[in-house]
Write a structure and sequence with these properties.
By secondary structure, the protein is mainly beta. It has strands at about 1-5, 10-15, 25-30, 40-45, 50-55, 65-70, 75-80, 90-95, 100-110.
């Protein structure tokens, strides 16, 4: 394991020993639990080291929280995302790299 320092609210931990997803995609985003009461565990897989931005937006598309913007190592990276300051409801978790972006619907139910 190779912890990384980030410019966000939490620490991303690299876990490159985790198995790759069956799809073989070069970028993946997994979120659990969903819905969450306080914290989502976010897993990001990058096939190669990549600059990523992770943010939360509301249903209108407005960014309500930028979680991190940093270079990730290849493999699986893990980040706890806290819902503090957000109201109950539906949001979108946005993962953006120079090559691709992924959006995942997340639900906060405190």
């Amino acid at each position: 394991n190779c912890p990384q320092n980030i410019k966000g609210e939490d620490e991303i931990e690299n876990r490159s020993q985790q198995p790759k997803a069956a799809t073989g995609a070069n970028l993946q985003l997994k979120v659990h639990p969903n819905p969450a009461q306080e914290v989502w565990n976010v897993q990001i897989y990058t096939e190669q080291s990549s600059l990523v931005q992770l943010s939360i937006s509301d249903l209108s598309g407005k960014t309500v929280k930028v979680l991190t913007e940093q270079q990730l190592l290849s493999g699986w990276n893990q980040l706890p995302v806290h819902g503090a300051g957000l109201s109950n409801g539906i949001y979108f978790l946005n993962l953006i790299t120079p090559e691709k972006s992924i959006t995942e619907k997340i639900v906060l139910s405190q």
